[in-house]
From TrEMBL:
<dbReference type="InterPro" id="IPR000914">
    <property type="entry name" value="SBP_5_dom"/>
</dbReference>
<keyword id="KW-0813">Transport</keyword>
<feature type="domain" description="Solute-binding protein family 5">
    <location>
        <begin position="72"/>
        <end position="404"/>
    </location>
</feature>
<comment type="similarity">
    <text>Belongs to the bacterial solute-binding protein 5 family.</text>
</comment>
<dbReference type="InterPro" id="IPR030678">
    <property type="entry name" value="Peptide/Ni-bd"/>
</dbReference>
<protein>
    <submittedName>
        <fullName>Oligopeptide-binding protein AppA</fullName>
    </submittedName>
</protein>
<keyword id="KW-0732">Signal</keyword>
<dbReference type="Pfam" id="PF00496">
    <property type="entry name" value="SBP_bac_5"/>
</dbReference>
<dbReference type="InterPro" id="IPR039424">
    <property type="entry name" value="SBP_5"/>
</dbReference>
<feature type="signal peptide">
    <location>
        <begin position="1"/>
        <end position="24"/>
    </location>
</feature>
Amino acid sequence: MKKIVGLLLMFVFMMTGCSSEKTAGPAKKDEVVISVGVNMTAGGYDPIAGYGVWGPDIFHSKLLKYNVKSELETDLATAYEISKDGLMYTYHLRQDAKFADGTPLTAKDVVFTYTKAKDSGSAADLTMLAGVKAVDDYTVVFTLNKPWSVFTSTTATIGIISQAAYNEKYGDNPLASGPWKVAQFQKDQQLILVPNEHYYGQKPKLKKVTILKLDEEAALAAAKSGQLDLVLVETEFAKTKVAGMHLAELETVTGLVINLPMVKEATTADGKVIGNNVTSDWAIRKALNIGIDRKLIVQNAFNGIGDPAYGWSAALPWGNAQAAFADNQVEEAKKILTDAGWIDTDGDGIREKNGLKAEFVVTGRSNDLQRYNTVVAVAADAKKLGINIIPKAAPWNECRLAQATPTCWVFGSHNPMDVYRYYHSSQMGKGVIGNPSSYANPKVDMYIDQALAATSSDKVDEYWRLAQWDGTTGMKEDYPYLWIANTRLTYFIKDGLDIGKQRVHVRSQGIPVVENLAEWSWQ
């Protein structure tokens, strides 16, 4: 093992020595060398193909953006208006925005970006977009085919590209109007960034950022040798001591969640198996939700680094703290199960009902240690209730069959659209993550529909909160999911490096820490 680590560390020395001209010793005060997982060096930095939808986009600017309070604010747009019927969105653009080659960004680039993204079937949902046109060089009007209040959130995820510069190789060499531009890129090895001197916003304090792709062990070894200024580490390594570096735990709005199918097992007309005979029982779902000990699970699964979760994070403007409830109510959970007829009659520690054991498989992705560790820790804790959860590490193509076999999901973003995807009855089986619990509650559907149709931001947030819990119905009564914990992202950071004020992130494989690179500096 030491030999392997040594070879990997040598690779780091070669990478940093040859490519970034950085050598061992005190860090230069105008650059950093970091490792934040695999995605930042994967290429494909093309908003048309969906880049920026699930994680940060440090190259492109967008019409709107999220601030440190997870609230929307203007970015490329200086202002915007929504028509009373919710069908027309008018954005007014700033007039000093330029792409990295110095050419002005105008309304035609916005029209080109959205038209291209819609035609390509991008990961950004633009099915509600009926049309987009430029009124003049700095005014764009979007027309929707139905009221869709989360359209403003959509405009905070799609980076604007240059119509003149866009080509089939754009994804590995973006020419954008954000704070950074590519100086050198070697796919799956390294990405070197330098400031875009034409950026209209806060000028980066660093002159160069080198991002390396390293696996966990090699990255930690490189950090210990002083070669890295910031490194993402799994929580299981967070207690490691690294001389000259300190640990930072960054909060996320992302929850690890197990879906609990609410319908009995059946085969659909197209041959698809859905439903689960155990989790379809309300008593099983409620007993699990109120009976498990989330703090203990966080300790066992994440080295104690994380926060118990009962639903969407209250840190979100539309989160509903009232949807939370007390857990580790073991005796109350047992009573619910017994009253519902789930009793251990053969003494094996697992309850039964009408010949059916309180037992089911839950998958955790084999390439995501946190998800699998979560399932294992939940299974261990659920035994005290007489419920036998069988953890299984599985590839993604198996995990996605979650309408029948529960799996551990990663739920949570700044966009309330997630509530629609996971809780609205119309979304069952839609796409990859559409309502995997087959949840159907007419009143919840009504609140979600009202949230999507509202044009006042206050009313929008109010309806999203009611969809979660209105005092009598919602997730707190139906328990379609078993929310476990909001993750924290852990990094070792070299002493003296200030990474600015970080907003509460989405998980996104740990890369959101770079979103505010323009604020980073050495003290």
